[in-house]
Write a structure and sequence with these properties.
This protein is mainly α. The chain is 76% helix and 0% strand. Helix 1 runs antiparallel to helix 2 and helix 2 crosses helix 4. The protein is elongated and about 85 Å long.
Length: 162
């Protein structure tokens, strides 16, 4: 459950922040550099906000290991705690630093990974879009009035009949 509470909000925050930055800077077709910077910023914001859920997930894994993997007599059933109860317990033990423990290494990993992902995605999207436009224009040339065929382009025909 803590993984869902970490990953779903992370994606929502990441994509919302990324789109906000594109809108804020009035960017329709972002450059590789802009996408890289926006991806790193968006990932940093999302990772910071969702780190407490990552901490809860890690505590769940540690507890599982202690009770089942490294125990001579593993219990038949384990009492489960809610995410809120685990978060409150972590806060009581170590305060805010404990809730955000591991933020530095997480940012060190997540920010560049997301920056590379989104800049590569935007570059690929732009490349394919322009390739398709070029292919369409090659296969469907616009015939103009001066080409000697006597036919009009669609836009010229609309102008004449308007």
């Amino acid at each position: 459950m803590s993984r869902i509470l970490r990953d779903v909000p992370f994606s929502g925050i990441y994509w919302t922040c990324n789109e906000f930055l594109k809108a804020r800077f009035n960017v329709v077709e972002p450059s590789f550099g802009f996408s890289f910077a926006a991806g790193a910023i968006s990932a940093s914001v999302a990772a910071t906000i969702t780190t407490p859920f990552d901490v809860v997930k890690m505590h769940e894994r540690i507890e599982f290991g202690e009770k089942f993997i490294f125990s001579d007599n593993p219990p038949k059933q384990v009492a489960t705690k809610s995410v809120a109860a685990r978060l409150a317990s972590i806060y009581r033990l170590g305060g805010v630093p404990a809730v955000f423990s591991g933020l530095g290494p997480r940012l060190f990993k997540v920010a560049p990974a997301c920056a590379i992902m989104i800049s590569s995605f935007e570059f690929g999207k732009s490349y394919v879009y322009h390739y398709n436009i070029d292919q369409h224009n090659l296969l469907n040339p616009v015939v103009t009035e001066g080409s000697g065929s006597g036919s009009l382009s669609v836009s010229e025909a609309r102008r004449k009949f308007d």
